[in-house]
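User: Please predict the structure of the protein below. I'd like the answer in structure-token form so I can feed it into my own downstream comparison script.

Assistant: Understood. Taking the following sequence of 295 residues as input:
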Amino acid sequence: MLGVKDPSLLRQRTLALLLAVVMLFGLAACGSAEEPVEPDQPAETPAEPVETTEVIIASTTSTEDSGLFEVLIPAFEADNPEYKISVVAVGTGQALEIGRNKDADVLLVHAKADEETFVAEGYGTDRQDVMYNDFVIVGPESDPAGIKDGDDAAAALKAIADAKAKFISRGDDSGTHKAELKLWAAAGIEPSGDWYDSIGQGMGDTLTMTSESEGYTIADRGTWLSMRDGLDLVIVVEGDPVLFNQYGVIPVTDANNQEGARAFADWIVSPAGQEVIRTYGVDVYGEPLFVPNAQ
């Protein structure tokens, strides 16, 4: 059997072995200290907050009451995070007046002849077609004026006047009200009397009052579709070419936020904005509430 017979020699060899092990671990520790430790994941730099500026849109109540702005504005702000939209929903006539006073940056309205005058007089930088739908005449199922399924809007209003059937007018100088007044003029009638009620309200309130009073009114199809399930009304006249309803966008000249106004006007006529308009309402109503037609 082989072995170390001298105990002192054995102790020396054991001490030497222990010293070697200690030195080996020391070198390993030093080496690992000198090597950089890679983090498991790189530290993320916090994103710089985007500074936003307000863009004020003066628009017809139909874009508000129909629910279009509930999808259109978030889509614009997602594509343009530097802007925050505020909406003033009024009749088109009042929206144009707000633009003249420069209390809005951009307009989205629907009275094309008045819009073109607004631009020609220098209050707007330019005007672009955005979308269209049409007006419809709605009334009670009982149809006391006997105009149901007609397609002549002026003749229908004459029949309503002759029957002295209740008619609720927005009476607010809106695009819808302007279209109504043109139809009365075409029918050769200046409406007045207890049967004709001019209420000075937006489209949603007008439809509600018309339903409650079992009367007739003129509505844009978008607002009508969005509200019809809660109304005791039906469409009685549609399809007359004079009921065509075009919307346009106008940046206000020397607006407070000219860059934001231009950004919104350019976006709403772009493929992104037009797609939001094209698809809005289709899943709920089976048809779009507005038809995009920017050039």
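That's the full token string. Confidence is low (pLDDT under 50) at residues 1-11, 14-35.
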